[in-house]
C-alpha cells in the first residue's frame, strides 16, 4: 500500500482534521534538513470549546501540541550536555517557516508496516492534551524520544520515528563503533 504525500505549503494552504500529524520542514545550522512533528488539536482558540467544528479546512491558526526543546540546561565538564524538552501548545503559523512550509503527514505507511492503526481523533487529541497538562520537563533523545516519537505515540499509541530509523540510527552505529575502537586502543 502506498500513500501519496502532499507537498509542503504555507500554513493557510494546508487542510487538516483533528488528530492529524503536521510535519514542518526545518534545517539544523542552515545545512542539515530535518522534519518537526506536532499533533493538530483544534482549529483555533475560538473553536476550542465548540462542537462540530468544520472538518478538513485551512488550518493556519490551528493549534498543535508538540515537543519544544529548552536551552541547553546542564553540561558536565563540557563532555555531556543534557538536552531537555517540554510539551507545548502552538499555532501552525507559529511553527511554520513559510520558506519551507508544512503539510499533513500521518506516517500511515510506516504505521501500517508496524501493524498500527490510528486511534480515534478525539482520543489522539486527548492524549496530546494530557501530556501538555502534565507540564513535565524531560530529557530529549534524538534516537528514542523526539518530536516524531511524541506525535506518533499520541496517534498510534506507540512512538516511532522514521527520521531516526532511516537517517540517524546508521550514524549512531558509526559513532558507537568509533567509541568502542577508542576504548580498545
TrEMBL record:
It comes from the Eukaryota. Belongs to the H-rev107 family. This is LRAT domain-containing protein. One of its GO terms (cellular component) is cytoplasm. Signal peptide: none annotated. Pfam families: LRAT. The keyword Hydrolase applies. The keyword Hydrolase applies. Residues 26-163 form the LRAT domain. One of its GO terms (biological process) is N-acylphosphatidylethanolamine metabolic process. GO terms for molecular function: N-acyltransferase activity; phospholipase A1 activity; phospholipase A2 activity. Keywords: Hydrolase, Lipid metabolism, Transferase.
